[in-house]
Amino acid sequence: QPLISSAKWLQLHGLKRNKLSLSQILSQIGFQHRKDYVTTLGKLVASRYADGLFRQYERAQDGSVYNLTAKKELILHFVDCLMGAIELYKQRMEWLTSESRQIFGVIQERCIVIVLDFGTAAPYEFDVCRDALSMVLVEQVTQIAKFNLIRAAQDLMKWQQKSTPVSKHTVKSAVLWLWKLHHMTAASHSSSAEALLEAMSDEAVSS
After folding, report:
1. What is the DSSP letter of 35?
2. Stated pTM of the model
3. What CATH number did the domain enclosing 166 receive?
4. What is the pLDDT of residues 71-130, one digit of tens each?
5. Is the dihedral of CA 40, 41, 43, 44 positive or negative?
6. 1 domain residue, yes or no
7. How far apart are CA 165 and CA 175, in angstroms?
8. Cα–Cα distances in Å, from 119 out to 55, 139, 153?
9. Residues 157 and 76 in one domain
10. Which partner from 7, 114, 133, 153 sits 20 to 30 angstroms from 77, CA to CA?
11. In angstroms, rounded to a whole number, what is the distance separating the alpha carbons of residues 122 and 198?
12. Domain co-membership, 63 together with 114
């Protein structure tokens, strides 16, 4: 799936885009039971010709009433469409909460710098962090334009001097660099801020 926000995904695949919102479906399977103001009579007039002829549905949101006129086949068509939409939503949720996305979210920027601050992580936690970082590099960074890695330390460490175009070679190189890092004691409190400032100094990085 493309690395897009849920808001953008809903614009492309949401109920409204596919004319499956409640109001859109109601307008296709019936008509609204109206009470309109008639200027010539000077009063509200309710359309009562449909009373008792059709099944009616009242929307809880605004109290509007719809007379349902659709045949069973059309109703079943919308049932199928909605079941398909539910399945698509489930797939999106599973994708959002799996692998690197459950830790890092969905990367939407075209150019990123990942700042590595391992703090007081124990050796086994250090390896868990590197596993997660390797995962995000392979699964998501491969789909963007440029990236870099900076490790917060007493002596700041950079994979590259500036953000580098993404390719199979550069991603593999970054993963190898990551796994060559040594576990060390926590850096000073200022190291993280220095690493962030260094990341922001890259002109290609927007945020």
Report:
1. E
2. 0.74
3. 3.40.50.410
4. 999 999 999 999 999 999 999 999 999 999 999 999 999 999 999 998 888 989 999 999
5. negative
6. no
7. 15
8. 65, 25, 9
9. no
10. 7
11. 26
12. no
